[in-house]
Records
---
Amino acid sequence: MSWKTLDDMDLDGKTVLVRVDINVPLDDAGNVTDATRIERIVPTVRDILDKGGMPVLLAHFGRPKGQVVPDMSLSRLVPALEKAIGVSVKFAENCIGGPAKSAVAALQPGEVLLLENTRFHPGETENAPTFAAALGALGEVYVNDAFSAAHRAHASTEGVAQLLPSCAGRLMEAELKALEAALSDPIRPLTAVVGGAKVSTKLELLGNLVEKVNYLVIGGGMANTFLSAQGIDVGKSLCEHDMADTAREIMEKAAAAGCEIVLPVDVVVAHEFKAGAPSEVVAADACPADAMILDAGPDTVAAIGAVFDKSRTLIWNGPLGAFEIAPFDKATVEAAKKAAEMTRAGTLVTVAGGGDTVAALNHAGAAEDFTYISTAGGAFLEWMEGKTLPGVAALEG
């Protein structure tokens, strides 16, 4: 890729517009309950300060749909930002116009400025040239550090990049390098684990992966759809029976591309979906008519482990079972621990992303050992689908 990084930019004495994703969860009192996204932007902001630049943060919060919604004001994040960055963070009550211009003019070296929610303006999501120009007029350099918003062609993610000297921030740089190493130029054999509830939401993903990976492990409710497409009775399991033809097409495409699809050979079944529900392990083709498949069985976990042993790179998106409730988390936990162990040993490069995926890997205690965990949801999926991300494409050249 031909995008620039902070190392390529002269920032001394310059006002630097930094697109960040600090769309963090808050409790009823307005306190940040998970500061991960804020912590992830700290290296970029600190680097800009160290280079003599003055960071001006552009961000969205929620979906106000072009209206000013007080509950979605970024002002509530100032204390958490100050704590994470360790410097004074000023706030402007608009991201364009008089308030923004005055706040930028008053900014002192060593300080950070946070502008109000970009999505309070309809021009943000419309990528309106006039709104992009109003944002661009506030700075001299543009840095995009929001990979998780890079699949959106918005004014603050794509429009401004066309108007100012632009580069990737440290988080964006790390994401792009990790993803490029995992799918664009991986060490092979390459394996992908794709789980989750529905085949229909990951059609493009599966279609792209079978042409790029050596092994494709399918888990979760998606696996039931593939089993059903092979004529296997999955009882009352979550299953998209209307996707049977599509599942068969994906299997045919994989066979033609030399990609081995790994499906459950044994499963954990129960008659109800609740914590501690009585369950048993049966062959994948022996699910009772009145039961549901809620996890992959031990033989399947062993088969997945054997695939990992043959692999050098692993991409992971989605759990292998209903990991939120024990004992149906076992396959996800054991496979994740196996991947983490190989990563620690230096025999496997592991990249994961997506909300459920991160939660599942954290639950397994494996996340910290993975080579890279993406903070992105939609952007990570679209990248895996082989799509061009507007916020990344705007930095190239």
---
Amino acid sequence: MPALVSVTEKINEPRYPSFKGIMAAKRKPVDTVDLDDLFPDAAAAGLLVTRTRVVEAVPRPARAAGIRIPDDGLAGQQLAEHLIAQELV
């Protein structure tokens, strides 16, 4: 299904539930919905219901060390040459 997710500047401010809300949540039932419950007649209608599975999970490679350009008067030129060599400019 399409989804839209947005983040605001208040993302790092946790919201704590009230005691009344915690007690009310304990009494509410938790409904479990299966994919077949969502699309009961998908096979009969000829629709292909997408079922995904994770084939492989690989950790992100470690970041390579950067380079330092000391500012001896030619730092701007060296930086520009580096960016051109990396095809970033």
---
Amino acid sequence: MTIGLFSRCLGCNDPMLAMTRRPGVFDGVRCMVSPQSLSSGVALGRALEPFGVPASYMEDLKDRVRLQTSFTLDQFSPVPWAKSLMIPTFLYQVRDDLYTRPDDIQAMFDNIPIANKKLHWIESTTRRWDGYTYFQREPEQILHWFARFMA
């Protein structure tokens, strides 16, 4: 069976973490396309901004997450896990997405250690949902990526 992954949003984090822990499970997976990747800590911080919640409260939130889960928000970040991606990976993202920051997505992309990688920014919108529906509106790049690596 020919396998390619289409891993949306936080669903992109799962294969990154899994490749960090058990890379052999992905033998034979040809590629991954991931729209709208997300780091939990960045998303939570961005979600609080429109409400005028002071940045100091983010430290309280980080403490509460750690107390509830035994993990820090930084430990939920896919940015370091991206170093384990060994399959061709295409990320696409709304650049001005209100729930993330371009530097976080860029860091994730930069950490992917292979040459067969691509990052496409969706411009002229702040609506996260425009990233989720990009494939339906503009399928050419994504279909080309799958055709290239799954042929």
---
Amino acid sequence: MTKLRCAVLDDYQGVAESLADWSRIGSRVETRFLATHSASQDALVDSIGDCEIVVVMRERTPFQAELFARLPKLRLLITSGMRNASIDLAAAARQGVTVCGTASNSEPPAELTWALILGLARQVVPENNALRAGGPWQQSLGADLHGRRLGLLGLGKIGRKVARVGAAFGMEVTAWSQHLDPARAADEGVTAASSKEELLESSDIVSVHLVLSDRTRGLIGAPELRRMRPTAYLVNTSRAAIVDRSALLTALREGWIAGAGVDVFDTEPLPEDDPFRSAPRLLALPHLGYVTRRNYEGYFRQAVEDIEAYLAGTPLRPLT
């Protein structure tokens, strides 16, 4: 019997094969694991054009209508998580491709948000670099969190977890989104800001936890960044397009704000010559929010389950 072919994309850490039992489908599916990101659509088609099954990691590789049309053999596309804005589900359906997802934990991005906040507030990276290089002993004054205001743009699953940690640090926590229910916020011990502008003007830390949509794209631009305090920090572990890229670079270079912590970018992996690699006042990470062992074990084990279910004629966790 001829085996189906499966490609697991963007396995940057080279761990996908070891974190799940792929032998469960080995008699019917030949699986290959691709650690290198395909920089162009042509390269991607050359790499996976013979595959009936593809497993993608979050939104690292977009699947839009043009790509589906170039992959006539593709029948099953699996994404980590149950939502992936970079997959055109309507195009997949037209092409006869079943799209399935996996569970995803919300704790890791909330934890990483605090890694960025603490790293910025206590100047962890500059102090570490100075210590290792034999530089000055203590060169910064840390920013206190206790008694300061944490402003959350979005109070969903991740935002609520971030809010609870802020309260534990003794921070005053406020939140805003276009449809935030003040009573729901109060249940979380959070004060609903009267407006986005009020939140930006009054917060010492502003952290973004919104879903990217037409309403939130470019939500934070130059006018919003100028409203922030010059001593305030902006943290974005959500989606890059929510914050205007050029405006943020200008704000960092000109000192409109004290700094920013960013885990998401418009183009990933970030090009070697991208200005974010050298921007001042920036603590940047390579989209690590969801990258933890527990999450990855869930993603790849459930991907195997999705393939098994598809082969049995009963797709599991379908998105189309």
